[in-house]
Here is the input.
Amino acid sequence: KRTQSMGDSWRSSWDTRVAGEKKAQAAISSAEKTGFGARASRVASTIGLYASVGTAIYGTINAIKDVILENLNLDKVLHRIKAITETTTGEISRLGSEIRATASSIGKSIGDVAKYAVAMSKLGLSAGDISQVTRAVSALSAVLGEDLSATGLLVVTTIKQFNLQMEEASYVSSVFFNAIKSSPLDIQQLGTSMQYVGSSAEAVGVNLKQAGDMMILLSNKGLKASKIGTGLRNVFVKLKEGGNDVVDVLRNMNESGLQFSEAVDLFGKRGAIVGYNLISSFKELEKMFAKDLPSAMDNYIAKIESTNGVLDGFKRAWQLVKAAASFDGSEK
Here is the structure.
């Protein structure tokens, strides 16, 4: 019994020792794993940091490369515009600055603005003319979210229809901005109407602001762009037959009263609905004539102008880049 008791006691001690050693080993193993995990985590963090720095450097290099390529392409476009317009090197240089300023201020690429400049040169504009209209065109395009080239086509065509000067592009843009914000018309629909209205309005003495207000009124009465355009053209031609001022004739007819059947006899089926609405709503129209154009375009143009000064430094830097690369920008 005593031997059995001693054996049991020894086994119990051994089991306790084994259990203690296992716990100790587990603790050591855990510590080693924890230490390795911490070291591994630190290594991974360091690798991740270097990877992030590398990505940033790579992105910066690509961005610089894109800027250089865009400007090299712009120089090619400017040479093309110079060939089309036969303008001076000084005007081409100023146009290049205008393109860069416009791209920066309205969030377009230099390539997009350069494409617009080529489209304007094909309309017969000199490099100086393009520089004069670009701020107004880009402001209208940016505010309305419309394509720059399509906006430029509308503005420049309208300037020519109404025999205006290129420096009056801001006035034209303000008229169109007012028409779009005050009616269901968009820039494509305005272009459709102006195809019919522009030259006929100018011929009978209706100015652009008055024509724009008429289009607003008619569009708000539910008339479509093509109907507005053809109808206004017919009304203008008919009312001018007596040699009187069109606006005065509309006022007199409003005061006299005009039935729709009389409008059909006077303007024909195509012009009757337009003529009747203009005459019957002339008091409302006259109030529209008296209102000033909104200042939003002038404010946005001023913002674009302020960008030019910021980009002067970039222009000087770009000239240094070309010199360093031995890039010959002269026309061959």
Notes: Residues 309-316, 326-332 have pLDDT under 50 and may be disordered.
